[in-house]
Amino acid sequence: MKHKEIPIPLFTIEQIQALTLEQIQNLTKKQIQALTIEQIKWFIKEQILALTKEQILAFTEEQIYWFIENQNFTKEQISWFTQIKIQTLTNEQIQSLTDWQVNWFTSKKIPQFTNEQIQWFTTNQIQAFTTEQIQSFVPE
């Protein structure tokens, strides 16, 4: 007897929070992208920390927005952002980054921001950049 696939968007808060770290790490790209923002809100901290690089890179723009807005990514997870993910960050997402999150963008990631995005950093965020990060901003 073939098992019927149960769509992840039908999982309840209790079911989402019952997922083990191993189960979280084994979610496929398709399953990750099917998660609703409401379901993502139900993840507990340990589940968020268990997300793999491949899963973070699979997130949709809307999912990324929620995680950044709610300051839920770790330093390592932010380091996984690709140029494509960095360049999809909106004004609101960039301005919602905390000082410590800003510090996590490596000097190799800084040049991946577009000229428009650079203008969106707040004065507090600019002040939070390290010397090495500031040096990675290149003149046009």
Annotate the secondary structure layout:
Layout: H1 13-18, H2 21-25, H3 29-34, H4 37-42, H5 45-50, H6 53-58, H7 61-69, H8 75-79, H9 83-87, H10 91-95, H11 99-102, H12 115-120, H13 123-128, H14 131-135
Account of the 3D structure:
This protein has 140 residues and is mostly helical. The protein contains 14 helices and no strands. The model has no long low-confidence stretch (mean pLDDT 84). It has one domain (11-135). The radius of gyration is 17 Å and the shape is elongated.
Would you kindly provide a brief summary of this structure?
This protein is mainly alpha-helical and 140 residues long. It has helices spanning 13-18, 21-25, 29-34, 37-42, 45-50, 53-58, 61-69, 75-79, 83-87, 91-95, 99-102, 115-120, 123-128, 131-135.
Q: Which stretches of 5+ consecutive residues score pLDDT under 50? A: none
Report mean pLDDT, rounded to a whole number. 84
Order of SSEs: HHHHHHHHHHHHHH
Count every helix, treating DSSP H or I runs of 4 or more residues as helices.
Answer: 14
Number of separate domains: 1
Task: Report on the biggest sheet.
Answer: none
Q: In what range is the share of β-strand residues?
A: under 5%
How many distinct beta strands?
A: 0
Structural class: mainly alpha
Distance between the termini: 62 Å
Estimate the global geometry from the Cα principal axes. elongated
Q: Rg from C-alpha positions?
A: 17 Å
Q: Helix content range of the residues, please?
A: 55-70%
